């Protein structure tokens, strides 16, 4: 019901209106004593119906032109009975959003597990991490260029300023990607990811020392199990390798700088997560390619290729293609997930992703794990979870 009351319109002008008004408030008249004078007055229908709700339109619709000009003197009181659709909560939409996020997470974890498995298989047979890293970036860049050309995905609208702000992010991403691949070529996948779970410690230290940021006490306390767990896992690792350990540590540091540069440089940029990572891959590919040629070179690649084909067979080509495709897909889905969820939820998902990768790699590659080593990994991952809670 909508009720609009206008003080100046309470009295209705005109002789007929005055008669109606008097008739409503005068003394009651008996039916058996109608006078001749009242017979000339037409019967008036009841102004208010008790059978139906009262609907009064705005006074402007029945008032005179003079009355409409006095809108500034309105005292409006509006009340309405909300329809059921306004009162009910949007449960279906919330449920659909949760299902969508769940699908993102499941896809993200599954793609990451598959990538790590094929990546380790390739590196065991073809120990050239610089070329492997380059091919994974090249494959993702080619996939996105084809998607833009065929209009499967909408191409981003970028300018020179966008690429300038993206450049330091791409440098850090390139270093982190190559360092992680080098680490996986030297040690077990599980050990690399245990060390990489210490990334929050690097994030806090870099932000505190270089950026001057301060954090609550629970954040600093959460670093104790992270550092302690990683140290325990490293000491008790059966196949410890210093190059693999340092590669994982450098990767942590590089990805921390990537996140810092990304937060600072990409504010206000209207580029979706999928296209943002596509542009990042293309720029990283341009940065990495000359270094890959300088560090390893075509001669080493050709000799290693022949050896891998002779030992593994034609399926080695499938391994190489799979690790390149799944690397791009899992990163793309992770950036798409970040568009849909909060940073806290993303951090928790990233922690759970490492657990799935560590467990699956141990099962598939039959990695020997000592109980103390497993305890260190569990402590480090628990610390990462506590960090994500304390940070928020």
Automatic annotation (TrEMBL):
Keywords, alphabetical = Chloroplast, Membrane, Plastid, Transit peptide, Transmembrane, Transmembrane helix, Transport
List, alphabetically, the GO terms of the cellular component aspect.
chloroplast membrane
Locate the transmembrane regions by residue number. Answer: 101-118, 130-149, 217-236, 242-261, 273-292, 312-330
Per the record, membrane topology reads: Multi-pass membrane protein
Where is each Sugar phosphate transporter domain found? 100-388
Where is the protein situated, by its record's location annotation? Plastid, Chloroplast membrane
Q: Which InterPro entries match?
A: EmrE-like, Sugar_P_trans_dom, Tpt_PEP_transl, TPT_transporter
Q: Listed GO molecular functions? A: organophosphate ester transmembrane transporter activity; phosphoglycerate transmembrane transporter activity
Note the coiled coil stretches, chain numbering: none
Name assigned to this protein: Sugar phosphate transporter domain-containing protein
* Organism name: Acacia crassicarpa (northern wattle)
